[in-house]
Amino acid sequence: EARPYIRPALTMTALVITGPSALAQRRGTFAKEHASGARPARAARLASTPRTRSKSTRASASGGTTIGAEEMAKDASSAEPLIGINPDRVPMVEAVNRGETSGKFNWTKQWYPVAVIDLLDTSKPHPTQLLGKDVVVWKDGAGKWNVFEDKCPHRLAPLSEGRVEDDGTLLCAYHAWRFDGDGKCTDMPQASSKEEEDRVRSNPRSCAFTRPCMEAQGLVWAWGEGGKEAELEARMTPPLLVPEIEGVGKNGEAPGGGYRNHWQVRDMPYGWAAFFENAIDPAHAVVSHHTLVGSRYDDPAGFNCVVERPMTSEAGFRCAIDPAVPPFNTIGKYDAETSYDFQPPCLLKIDWRHEEARFLTSHYCVPTRPGWCRHFVATVCQRGEGEKVRQHRWFKLNLFTLTSPAWMTHVLGPTFLHQDMVLLHQQEKIIAQGDGQDIANKWKDQVFIPTGADKMTVMFYQWFGRNGPIPWAGRDGDAMPPIERDQSKLFDTWEMHTKYCTHCQGALRNTEALKVIAAAAAAWKGVWATCLLAFGASAAGASAGAGVAPSLGDVIAAVDPSLAGELFSAFSLAGTAYGLHGFAGMFRSYPFSHAEEDIVMEGTAKIGLSNDGPSLYIDVVDNALFGGNKHAGKKDAVGCECGECSPFHDGIRSGPLDAFRKKQEAVRAAKEAGTPAR
Asked: Which residues contact 676 (CB under 8 A, 6 or more apart)?
């Protein structure tokens, strides 16, 4: 009999603990070389700032990877094999590391998030895809979310086109067969008698094709395959949960005082590999996301990638960047660390750590079908004491999202995601050359990587090359779709998000209603202003006498003084209606081009969220959420929300990064002293 997975006790070897003031003592030589004051001009910085490149990096004119095997081995020897792993998954990872399992990654025997619970309409079934298979997500009468393969066992019609009935069953819209949450057929109206119906319903072939599923962290999760053994295997496998997200209430506040913003979810027109190649690349952020998180002209900089957890099939890998270049810090002011933690098949954690705060951003990327993925993201803020961090660019950008309503966070999401969407959509097709299943090998044979800044991307494709390809199933097969040139389809936010988000649908309805009200009010004010002008002209004509045309001055003098106010109101309301029309359009489509200026991006730059500096808005939000410097009874805000399943903020400083920096300092000191370093 299948039993629920039992969480083991917290494995302390999964944590790397150092002193609370470690970051202040760990300004590596590479960071010091960059410290040249506050934001110098790029030309001056390029002339005066040395760029580093690993000695084992090889530039190849013919393409291919450029990170040497000896560098990988050296990094792995100093890394921590369990850092960043959820304690629930530590025994499984340890078993793989000890060679007790095959070591081959199995894509279908994994948990994947498929939907955000808070966004779904409980009265309807919701279609999506997983590993190429069509599935349907729906809520039964017992209040449980279920995941079925999207086909009725009768004639294989899509169940997602059916209905959730008042009795809590899922009705197929083709022949009205009904199914409960366990997939059993509860009603078959075509049966000629009760006896025949009972006989047919007792046949296992009358049941819907169910998938093991669960609810956790505000998400619906589905197992990667169905079948007789799936339920047992799923119960014995812990999902890729993030301890810092557990226990978060609907308002975003956690029991320990941390805060999480609303889940964002969106279908993206590029594949799973393209997503992780991009998301795991710090160097692209300030270029592709120009003005939103930094400047493409002033902020690009070199850095080292330090392996914190060596690469394994089951646990992926974790790296820190040294120094944490923009957007995580400002050049010349490196007071925060950042780590990237890839855990297959679908999790990437970006862990930003400052002595006064921590932001942990968790990205889930689910392979839905070739050339497409479903992206989930949420950020947790944990706050320590102090106010210096309020001026930090990364703190300001992320704190803004903690107080935004869900629909605002969602409608502004494309301002970030669409900045590099076209690049990724086309890039993977260019690399694949029609064969998406061999993209890992095709990638390394075509790209040119002359610097170590791409090290994590190289590591990702090494992992994918060893453990891929994705075993696509379903009607689409494994063929990579062609490049989409129609921008109305590529930037279709309705199909990619709004149509299955109740928050955004409600906001769109309200925006459209306000637009109509504003337009109607503007029209009324315009008509009334016209009437006032006509009354004034008539009065001026009467005063001038018969046959005498009044002068413009006479007309103006005769017009009611309220005309100016009415005209101002008419134009203001018309402008409001136009603005609401444009805002409503963002729920349907949001095209973007790097060749053109974007008003939303420029607006972000103007209010200073993408640069260091004081902000009254951030001060108010920080005080409201975290009680300012004193924390008002939220003493655990710096650590895990539940206080048990994750290290506190001071316990997550990077041990491997510390060792790497000390070795750098030793090499530099030995070079200056003229003696060999040990």
From this structure: 670
Q: Look-up: residue for tokens 């972000």?
A: 604
Tokens, residue 312 = 């394994």
Q: Which of 432, 444, 536, 441 is nearest to 478 (CA)?
A: 432
pTM: 0.84
CA distance 412 to 292: 11
Reported as type and span, the H/E element at residue 528 is helix 502-544
Residue 209 structure tokens: 């094709």
Position 251: which residue type?
A: N
Report residue 573 as tokens. 């309301």
Would you say 246 and 641 are in contact if contact means Cβ atoms under 8 Å apart? yes
Backbone angles phi, psi at 532, to 5 degrees: -60, -40
Burial-class residue 171 by CB neighbours within 10 Å (0-12, 13-18, 19+): buried
What angle do helix axes 455-467 and 272-279 make, rounded to 10 degrees? 150
**Crossing angle (nearest 10°) for helices 421-432 and 272-279:** 120
Contact 142, 240 (CB under 8 A): no
- Residues 668 and 29 sit within 8 Å (Cβ to Cβ): yes
Closest CA to 274 of 424, 74, 478: 424
Q: 562 or 631, which is more confident?
A: 562
Report whether 328 contacts 350 (CB < 8 A): no
* In the block, residue with structure tokens 């045309």: 549
Give mean pLDDT, residues 418-445.
Answer: 88
Q: Which residues of 107-129 are buried (b: 16+ CB within 10 A; e: fewer)?
A: bbbbbbbbbbbebbeeeebbebb
Whether the CB-CB separation of 205 and 187 falls below 8 Å is answered with no
Whether cis (ω within 30° of 0) applies to the bond prior to 345 is yes
H/E segment holding residue 409 = helix 406-417
Give the other-Cβ count within 10 Å of 574's Cβ: 17
* Strand ranges inside 356-512, DSSP E: 357-369, 372-383
Among residues 538, 541, 532, 540, the alpha carbon closest in space to that of 564 is found at 532
pLDDT confidence tier of residue 76, bands split at 50, 70 and 90: low
Q: How many CA atoms lie within 13 A of 157 on its CB side?
A: 15
β-bridge pairing 219-223 and 170-171: unpaired
**What pLDDT does residue 97 have?**
77
Structure tokens at 182: 């366990």
- The SS3 call for residue 171 is strand
